[in-house]
Every structure is written in C-alpha cells, then in structure tokens.
Amino acid sequence: MTYGVIAVCCAVFLVSPVSGLNPSYGTGDALLAAQSAYFERWGVIPAELMSGDPGTLLTPFTALFVSGNWLHLLGNMLFLYVFGAMAEERLGQPEFILFYTVTGYVALCAYAAANAGSDQTLVGASGAISGVLGAFLFLFPRARVTSLFPFLFFLPLRFPAWIVLIFWFALQWLAASGAGSGGPGVAYLAHLVGFGAGFLYAWGRFGRGARVKSSAAATEGESKP
C-alpha cells in the first residue's frame, strides 16, 4: 500500500496542471489560472471547511493526493518511502491505509480549525506522512536510518530513528512557534498534529510490550536515504 500511495500521488501530480507537463492546460497565464483552480477545487480552504458546507467535507481527503510543486511531491514521497513500508508491515495493509487516511484527514482539519478565517489553500500528504513518522517512532525507535543533516554538510550518516524523528519534530515545533501555522505551502501545525496522532495511535494499538526493537533484520530493512 505504501508504494501504491506513492504511485497514486505521483500519477495525480503528473497529469495535473502543477507539474507543467500536461499541454492541455496551456502556458503562461492560462496555466497559472488552471493551477489556482486546481488547488481551490481539490485542496482545503479553512474558512470554507469550517463554515460547515457539506461540499467541503471531502477536501481534506482529496488534498492528501495533491502536491504544490515538484519539491513538495519529492520530499513527501521520500519520507513515505523511507518510513512507510515498515510501519505498513507492522500495521497490516488494510489498517495502514485507513490509519494513513484518517491521520491525514485529522491533521488537515486541525490546521483548518486553528486557521478558520484563512482563505489560503492547503494541499499535500504531509499530515498523513507525519502520522507515519509518529507511529514509526513508537514501533521502531532503534531502527537505524540514513539521513542527511545540513549542519553536517549533508553527509549520509546512519542514526537511530528516535534521533532523526525527534530532531524532525523539534524543527516542526520551532517553525510553528516562530511562524504561526506555517508560511505558504508549509502547515507546520498539521505536521505536529499528524505526528502526535500517529504516535498515540501506535501506543494505544500496540502498547509498550509490543514495541519493535531495531533488530538486525529491522536495521537492514530500513537503510534508505
């Protein structure tokens, strides 16, 4: 299911006006207008969602499969690729896709509730993927992952997952504290809510006794950058 979600997100992006690869949307102003209409149609507009309009209730779901640009898509899919497969293996396919969808939906709704007067469109799978990260932290805290840290000159180094994910969470927290709920295209609050929801779900679902330690097999299974 992890690879299926990645494939769907990539396919949706490639045929959308955002990729710039679909000639049917034109160029220049026509393309920009198509992109704006695309985000408004499939993304979350907090003011509209919080207004109670039934027609907007599905937008937190559709927004999970919409990306704002190439960097947004690639960044999200990389995190899902690195952390998703092991979380899915632990949860099972049906439960994983339900967990992914519900966590993402809740994260986007939380952002909308905190920014109920905003007309800024929100798109992306970040909330759902943050949920996967939270679940991974509980289930595989000692699994080693290869990471690139800017302050370490982007050297590919292997760290326990708990170090990488807590560092990531701290960055989101600092960004949310310093920039409200995030700048254009970055909803840090949705990241925090998704991460917290994912961790709490894994804790409630499996409990302390079922936590998976980073065995040799787990270590080998999660070595992607």
Automatic annotation (TrEMBL):
UniProtKB keywords: Cell inner membrane, Cell membrane, Hydrolase, Membrane, Protease, Signal, Transmembrane, Transmembrane helix
InterPro entries in UniProt: Peptidase_S54_rhomboid_dom, Rhomboid-like_sf
All copies of domain Peptidase S54 rhomboid, residue ranges: 57-206
Subcellular location: Membrane
GO process terms (BP): proteolysis
Signal peptide: 1-20
Membrane association type: Multi-pass membrane protein
Parts of the chain that traverse the membrane: 61-84, 96-114, 120-140, 152-174, 186-204
Highest rank taxon of the organism: Bacteria
Entry keyword annotation includes Transport: no
GO molecular function terms attached to this record: serine-type endopeptidase activity
A GO CC term assigned to this protein in UniProt: membrane
Protein name per Swiss-Prot or TrEMBL: Rhomboid family intramembrane serine protease
